[in-house]
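Hi P.,

Sorry for the delay on this. The queue was packed all week, but I finally got your sequence through. Input first:
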Amino acid sequence: MGVGVAGSVGQHWRVSEINREFQLCATYPPVLAVPARISDTTLTYAARYRSKARLPVLSYLHSNGASMTRSSQPMVGLKQARSVQDEKLVEAIVATSEPTGMVPRFRNERNNIIIDARPTTNAVVNRAIGAGSENMDHYRQCRKVYLGIDNIHVMRDALNCLADAAVDAADVSATASDLGNAEPAGMMARIQSSRSSWL
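Then the structure:
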């Protein structure tokens, strides 16, 4: 998509090597795609506001300029802390989809959505341990949507139940294999053997 290439859809993005030695965020790659107008110093301060320093970075850039970025939850806490640097970073991300690279003064037809994959209750409860969710009063031209997806432990248990059901179906299919249809049983055996490495 031409991140950092003038005249391309990625012209308002740049590649930062701020995480070269994984000193900023141990779980992010050594190079990050970030808005071109945001300095590495601002990124450093914005990372301090995010759980495990997982600041918002580019994950996908569409040919029409729309982007998907990912980050962890902000460290809002009970006192409703905020980070001007994080707010500026999100504002710059919103601006990258504009032809001028600047956020328009007035609301337009674009939807800038901050998606929180957790259930709303989890986000509210996390405030008690110093985390939480973005206060939308401080994120211009954005709205927030909660997806209601449970934590990784609940999702792993659901996946294991699904795999167990597939194995049970394989047992039924094994009876069918006696009648000459061996493929379903073989497929279920492969699913069962690979299940341990899924999550």
